[in-house]
Amino acid sequence: MMCKSPSKKRVVLAGCTSIAVAVANGVYAQSQSASVDTGTTISEIVVTAQKREEALQNVPISISVLTGRQLDSSTSLSVNDALNSVPGVATTTGVQGGTTQISIRGVTGSGPLFAGASPIAYYLDGMPFSFIRSSVVPDASPYDLARVEVLRGPQGTLYGASALNGVVRILTHDADLNQFSTKFRVGASDTEYGGPNGRVDATINVPIIEGKLAVRLTAGYENLSGWIDKPGNADANDSRVQTYRVKVGFAPIEHLTSELSTWISRSHYGAPPYGYADRFNPDVRPEPIETDYDLYGFKLGYDFGSFTATSNSSYFDFKNDGFLALSTAPDAFVSETILPMHAFNEEVNLASTAEGPWRWTAGGMYRLDNESQYQPIAGLFPYPLSSRLRSQSEAVFGELTREFLEGKFELTGGLRYFRDTISTVQLSGFTDPTPSAVTGTDDHHLSPRVILNWHPHADSTVYASYSEGFRSGGAQGAAILAIEPNFPALKPDTLKNYELGAKGDLFGGALSYDAALYYMDWKAVQQPLLVSLGAVNIQTIINSKSASGVGGELGFTFRPVTDLAFSGNFGWNGLKVDADVLSGSVDLFPKGVRLNLSPEYTAGAAATYTVHLSGGYKGNFSGTFNYISSTTDRSLNTVTNSVLISPGDATRTGNLSFALVSPQRWTASVFVDNFTNENASPLNHFVGFANWNQRIRPRTFGVQFEDSF
Predict the structure, then answer these.
(1) By the number of CB atoms within 10 A of the CB, which of 338, 424, 634, 668 ranks highest?
(2) Angle, CA 40 vertex, CA 35 and CA 709 arms, to 5°
(3) Architecture of the domain delimited by 16-175+195-536+544-708
């Protein structure tokens, strides 16, 4: 396959991205990654991280890509599962289950629920998913995706609020207007301490009017055994996940394209994956979880010759309903949390396409987000906690790039003006059913970005950048306002990032590298703290002290010969609080400690080797290993008025596989995931109950078959 450049003028700078590792049992990614067929055919990756098509190697930000081919062949159970292979990224399962909290470069939310919005933006086909006061995201199916782009560092100029220190973009395949195709995969496996698992996925693409109208259908079903036992309920945390996607592409005239899309997901979990080290949870009560979402989108684009205009309209309907036992005592209470969210988003994007030294992007967006929180605690309080939140936001943004010295240098400047109006209504409290008055905030923010990009030769990029991300504030809850009506509203927090980076190919493509060194300065960090108001202590979210630190990342792929490849990456961040953070009268975060759920190190390694067999068959051996350092969770014990420190464990997980690839395009694989049978607890819950500690899926043996026509 020949290399393709998204810009004719820039062919000299768009050297082919060299190598990558695509493994059958897992996904390993770095910014220079991902050719197909374990690297025997090398293709350039084109991304749209900067709202335009660009060669990955030319994008002057720290970015990793998981390709659709990699994800189709992997045994990752969700996109969020695969993200743990990306440098600088770590994920943890929320206490409610069925949702995930994401950390990039050590920056994450203070907690999964009601502890502030996520500082990492999460997009499903152009639709931003975010809560106003929670930081979890859904677990999306990894099948039939075009790619997943992971942008590290602040992205406030192009992606707005919640892109405080990174963006995850999940992009599905568009309907192909010209070619009929089908593909499917089936897998069966068995989990130690659990039982049998199975999954099936299939996609069909049908051109109805060639070149004009086509439909693409994808469906998947996954039935997984649990591995946490409860009294009288073995493998209690089993799961069933259904996914359905439909895309209809329509191009009635030249230069005009349109697309309707639907994404439906239904997930049921028997219980959260939490328990003691022996994978036992002594609580006898059921803790089921339902996580459902529907995404509807309409995309319209027109190519005017010198620029393109695109409108992307989306509607998101999400609901998470989960039960959680508050202790193991026989008469303890069970909390139910219901989190419905409905959001509409409209974004218009203009991008230049004409040749010349100038390139530009401009656009605007509008978002309306309505959320509710309904939380009864049976037997403890007479009324459920019930509230309603609403966010209406608008933004305009633009970036301008100028090339110098025949494209050797580029200077980019960008700005985004953002406004977010947030209101909160507390419909009832645990002890008071009386509705409170509406409270609200009106936040404005201007986010800049400046990048100097240098191409010393056709296969390399060196950049220096300043970027800024932000996260919206919001009104305080009615509980604290009932005691202190003048308590200050939550203000936006900002993160400034100064970065030097380099990426490229050496030795004719035998070595690809990606390196970055950065300094983060996070101001007015949003944190849930206990506030003392006279004789009453109330937990709320406030703007606390700043946090800062230096960090770095290094990734490489080395191919000494055609059929052998080695890859590795390492990430470190020194993010620590700059001054003591007091919760009431207690020093919750002393100066120099790390924030909650913030890993300091991530590392990964992978290797693939291809054996050429008779009849055109190939055998691919592959292995991956990933490391995420330990984290802590610090909270205030209101009984003893002391700090409760819950240390999480470092995790070391590895996968192995062998895949037989036929010349007829089918692939049969055998694999073992978590071959070391890691049983660490990456998340020890802040309450301090050992039975709430998250457990990783144990060693799993399986087979997988995939084919396409």
Answers:
(1) 424
(2) 75
(3) Beta Barrel (2.40)
Tokens standing for 102?
Answer: 């994401």
On whether the CB atoms of residues 184 and 705 are closer than 8 A, the answer is: no
By the 8 A CB rule, do 550 and 576 touch? no
Low-confidence ranges of the chain (pLDDT < 70): 1-44, 94-98, 327-332, 434-438, 477-479, 481-483, 485, 532-537, 638-639, 685-691
Task: State the Cα angle at 442 between 316 and 540, rounded to 5°.
Answer: 80
* DSSP notation for 440-502: EEEEEEEEEEEEEEE-SSTTEEEEEEEEEEEE--BPPPHHHHHH-TTPPPBPPEEEEEEEEEE
> Which pLDDT score, from 0 to 100, does residue 33 have?
34
User: 372: closest CA among 454, 419, 317?
Assistant: 317
- The Cα–Cα gap between 267 and 265 comes to 7
Helix (H, G, I), strand (E, B) or coil at 9: helix
Residue 565 burial (CB < 10 Å; 0-12/13-18/19+)? Answer: buried
Among candidate residues 203, 210, 209, the one with its CA nearest the CA of residue 172: 203
Q: Token pair of 628, please?
A: 């995420």
Identity of the residue numbered 578: D
Q: Are strands 526-533 and 576-577 parallel, antiparallel or unpaired?
A: unpaired
Rounded Cα gap, residues 489 and 350, in angstroms: 36
Q: What integer pLDDT is reported at residue 697 of this predicted model?
A: 94
For residue 483, the model assigns a pLDDT of 67
Q: Dihedrals φ, ψ of 531, to 5°?
A: -105, 130
At 96 the pLDDT is 64
CA-closest candidate to residue 605, choices 586, 629, 583, 627: 627
User: For residues 152 and 163, what is the distance between their CA atoms, to the nearest angstrom?
Assistant: 10
d(CA 504, CA 56): 10
Q: Where are the alpha helices (DSSP H) in 299-393?
A: none
For residue 27, which of 681, 680, 671 has the smallest C-alpha distance? 671
Distance between start and end Cα atoms, the chain: 19
Question: Cα Rg for the chain, rounded, in angstroms?
Answer: 25
- Measure the CA–CA gap between 252 and 79, rounded to whole angstroms: 34
Angle at 600 between CA 594 and CA 602, to 5 degrees: 160
- 414's tokens: 């960008």
Domain ranges of the chain: 16-175+195-536+544-708
- State the Cα torsion 406-409-410-411 to the nearest 10°: -130
